[in-house]
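Deviation from plan, reported transparently: inosine-5'-diphosphate complex.
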Amino acid sequence: MERTLVICKPDAVERGLTGEVISRIERRGLRLVAAELRTITEDVAAVHYAEHQGKPFFDDLVVFITRSPVMVMVVEGPEGVHKVLRTMMGATNPMEAAPGTIRGDLAIEMGENVIHGSDSPESAAREIDIFFPGLS
Ligand code: IDP
Ligand code: MG
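Because the crystal trials were delayed, the predicted structure below was used instead.
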């Protein structure tokens, strides 16, 4: 089994889409190990998105992810679960995300793309330890 970190971003919570996102994850056969509504601080955002520090969109990304509560979740499934989640999420830019994906069905703007999912098992372990120490 493998675990990955999923975040329903502020736009998802504001729009009442957490149930839709969780429902898709559960219907796929994946299991929630932890889930909590939290407001991410600027410091935690900078650690979580450390790989993007210095990029032109970094400041906007931090403002976005800290603006209102997010639903942070640890999701468990078979080995490769992070890839399954990434496929379910769709492309980073919702304009390019396929229909049937979360972003392709529920979003249209790059800066408001509903969901975060870890991009590798290593990222998953690092990110889970930020939000739920001991659960990776
Ligand atoms: P991901 O969320 O699909 O893993 P990343 O490249 O890790 O995509 O980027 C993290 C987040 O930063 C994206 O989900 C998106 O909200 C934002 N982002 C990424 N690239 C851009 C960009 O070029 N312009 C504006 N926002 C961006
Ligand atoms: Mg990413």
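The mean pLDDT is 98. We consider this an acceptable substitute for the interim report.
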